[in-house]
Amino acid sequence: MAAVTDTAGETHHVLAHIEQVTSALTVRASYTYSPTMSLQLYAQPFVSTGAYSEYKEAVAPRADDYADRYHIYSDAELLVMDRLGSVDSDGDGAADFSFPLGDFSFRELRSNLVLRWEYRPGSALFLIWSHGRTSVGPDGRFSLRDDLGDLTGEPGEHVLMAKLTYWL
After folding, report:
1. pTM of the prediction?
2. CB 43: neighbour CB atoms within 10 A?
3. For residue 152, what is the enclosing H or E element?
């Protein structure tokens, strides 16, 4: 997860257990008004969150016994505050080193709407609206309702395109 240096210049490799939840849905719909006109929709919401726990340090990565490879930080050693984890390994009350917490929430929506009009056989006009929005946050708790609600409050990117084809 992170390699950090303490006040004495020693490097510490901090690891953690991650609980990650991902939810995605792809929707495609098509409606044909007539043989020469149709409307197509594509939408894909995506939410992924990750919450870290059980912070530990690699102390003997090549040890024969798995339990000897890591030192799991106790509650007395680890202080978590303001998106930062601080470790007091010697118990003197002062942090020996700190590392950024990696909890995350990533939300994204991508969608397209395409209107196709075949104005003469083999020739068509396409009107396309493409929409996207993204939201990133430090909260690793998964709540589909809240995450999608947070996504709707983000500014979106809107692109309007037109394509004309003509058959000779």
Report:
1. 0.76
2. 15
3. helix 144-152
